[in-house]
Amino acid sequence: MIDVRQLRTLRALADHGTVSAAAEALYLTPSAVSQQLAVLSKSTGCELLERRGRNVVLTEAARVLVGHADAVFAQLERAQSELRAISPAPMTVRIAGFPTAVMAVIAPAMKALREAHEEWRFEIADTESEESVAHLIDGTVDVAVVMAAPNRPLLGDPRIRILPLLEEVYVAAVPAGHRLAAAERIGLADLVEEPFVLAAEGLSCHDQVTAICADAGFQPRGRYRATDFSAALALIANGFGVTLLPTLGVPPLMPEGVVLVPLKEDWPRRVSLIAVRTGAEYPEVVTALAEAAAKLVR
C-alpha cells in the first residue's frame, strides 16, 4: 500500500533536488526522509533513486510516481473542499499576495468576508508572488494573489490552478520639470535614454518593467533601486529618473514633483491572478477577490 506521506516526501525530493533540502522543507531529518523513500520503494517494488556521486536522482519509475502523486494530491484537495462546504466548523482563510494586491484587493475582500462571516479567521501575508506560490505548494497558504511575470516557473506547476483577476495599464512617472512632463502621451521609445528607478532584481515589479522595455526594443538604464512605489516616487520627485507604474501603484495622493503621463502603447499590462492548489475550491474567497478587483477598474 502506498502511503500519502511517502508520496509527499518523494515530491519534496523532486522539488528540492537533495535529501537534505527535502528534509528541511518537510521539517524532517535527512535519515527520516531516506527511510520513508526506502519504504516507498519497497512497497512499489521499484527503485526510485539512483545514486550519482554524492547526490541522488529520480529514476524513471520515480518520475512516473510523482505524476500520479500530483493527481492524488489534487483529489485529496477536492475531498477537503467538499468536506469544508458541509462542515459547521469556522473556516480559516490563509491568503497571501504582493504588497499592492494586499492593499487594494485582498484587504477589502477579506473585510467583506469578515463582515459576512464573523466566526471566520483570517491569516494574511504580504509576500512576493514566487514565495506565495511556494507557500501554496507546501500547504501553508490556501489562496494567493500573484503577478504574472517572466521567469515564474511555479505558475506552470501542475499542482497550481490559476484564475484571472485583474489587468492594469501602465503610466510613466517623470519629474515635474522633465522634458516629457507636459506631453499628453508618450511612447516607450521616448524613455530609452532616461535613467530608470527600478525595483530590486528578482522582484516581480522589476521583471515586469524590464520585460515591457525589452518588448519595446531597449533595456532600461536602472541607475536607482527602490523596494516599493513610495520610495520610487520620492526619488522621481527629486529628479532621480523615471519609472513605469501600474494602476495599483499610483497612490491616492501623488507626491509633489511627480507627473504621470499616459503611454501611447496600450499593450503594457500588469496581470494579476488568483492561485489555488489544483483540486481546491474556495468559491466565497474567489468571489470576494473578484468583486474587490472589479471596483478598481470601473
Comma- or semicolon-separated keywords:
transcription, D-Maltodextrin-Binding Protein, domain 2, Arc Repressor Mutant, subunit A, DNA-binding transcription factor activity, two-stranded antiparallel sheet, alpha/beta, 298 residues, transcription regulation, 9 helices, LysR_subst-bd
Explained architecture:
The protein is of the alpha/beta class and 298 residues long. It has three domains: 4-84, Winged helix-like DNA-binding domain superfamily/Winged helix DNA-binding domain (Arc Repressor Mutant, subunit A, Orthogonal Bundle), CATH 1.10.10; 90-166 and 271-294, 3-Layer(aba) Sandwich (D-Maltodextrin-Binding Protein, domain 2), CATH 3.40.190.10; 169-269, D-Maltodextrin-Binding Protein, domain 2 (3-Layer(aba) Sandwich). The protein is built from nine helices and eleven strands. The protein has helices spanning 4-16, 19-26, 30-44, 60-86, 99-116, 129-138, 204-215, 229-237, 283-294, and strands at residues 49-52, 55-58, 92-97, 121-126, 143-147, 160-175, 195-198, 221-225, 243-246, 258-262, 269-277. α7 (204-215) links the parallel β7 and β8. The longest helix has 27 residues, at 60-86. The chain is globular and about 70 Å long.
